[in-house]
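Contributing new records

If you add data, match the layout below exactly. Sequence lines come first and carry their own label; structure lines follow with theirs. Keep one chain per record. Anything else will be rejected by the validation script.
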Amino acid sequence: MTDLSAFPIASRWPAAHPDRIQLYSLPTPNGVKVSIMLEEVGLPYEPHLIDIGKNETWTPEFLSLNPNGKIPAIIDPDGPDGKPFGLFESGAILVYLAEKTGKLLPADPAARYETLQWVFFQMAAVGPMFGQLGFFHKFAGREYEDKRPLERYRAESQRLLGVLETRLEGRDWLMGDEYTIADVATLGWVRNLVGFYEAADLVDFKSLKNVPAWLERGLARPAVQRGLNIPARP
């Protein structure tokens, strides 16, 4: 039986199946990237709900695995050299799982780096900007009298959507005919922007053609539908 006792997080969220990948997450845009990925590649895993509303990401046990205090994080009991391996940051986890399985990341070096480029585009631009727009449009930031931050993030989010719109011209997926981790990384954020953040009108989403069609294709994938609700909320 796999021993995960070296990981303090496993004492707070015990593994019923320690031989499976342990996922510590919540169904947010960053969280669902990894659950979708795990569903897509078919690796067995065990999800643990980390309640950010209860500040569980700031507990010593969670911080011992992810010092950044954000979801998601994983422990792979069959990591490099067959040893248990912990990893945080969603983009790094996507790359790790893709390389572990040989799926959703092209083997061709040029295509591989191009795919990583779009994963990093999501991590460095789409995620942070869309998240800030959500704060100023839907959450506490909407009460701010100064609307300049909202306008800043609205304009930048529209620009980023324009980048995606241009990239997807004549393409089903960000890399063309092949669905990759670049799509896995980005789908949840666009979905949140127009759905949960209720910002579709704010960014004039209906004026786009390629991004809505890509989002619809992505959300139609069974693995995406399953992953969007893992770990299940109470």
